[in-house]
Task: structure prediction
Amino acid sequence: MRIFAFMQDLHNSNPAASVLPDNSANLSKKEQVADMFNNIAGSYDFLNHFLSLGIDKQWRKKAIKEVGMVNPKTILDVATGTGDMAITAMCLKPHTITGLDIADEMLAVGRKKIAALNLTETITLLTGDSEAMPFETGKYDAVMCAYGVRNFEHLEAGLKEINRVLRPGGKVVILEFSKPVSFPIKQFYGFYFKFILPTLGKLISKHGRAYTYLPESVMAFPQGKDFCTILGNCGFKNTKAQPLTFGITTLYTGIK
Result:
């Protein structure tokens, strides 16, 4: 009964946990997410910039500015993907940046970018699970995650792991897509997400499900005050939610 209640709580805290890249696959969400990103790794960066009209670069800069508030020397980038957040964070002049992701093909793309920029002495990308990270407690001054928490199979387990590897007083900075609420942005965003983004994403990435999974998981994911409450339940204090670009994305912060 206790195990059932625990799993039920995890499900209730993150309705997006039941949104899968492939409903017909006999795989866990974690396995499906890894497979999906491995399949779109080659076109991921282009689609990120193209489908967001380049605004994603400004969102990352705002997030990195928040990371810089604690003057971090050690930074962890969870769900690093192709390493864009890690590369952007180099402006903070940290001693080390570690990127962690479950998708090997995404990491391969990231390592090529990092090598081309001669950043391999500072940035290291590792394959690993956000819910069971191979790092000691309190290792990092800051942990950041851009558009990855929505894909966690067990949201609170991943957030508690982030809290564990942060030092006391360390900062978590999370970017995640959200749902605009004001007219006419809400209506335009809904149309773009439902019709335009999946069509362009499928055409370019050749992956039929990845860019329909994206809007479905965004619509299901807790946002704003609801996500701040979850962060608080996972050990963070002073949690804040800052909507960006009419609420298309939200910047979340918290302190351990």
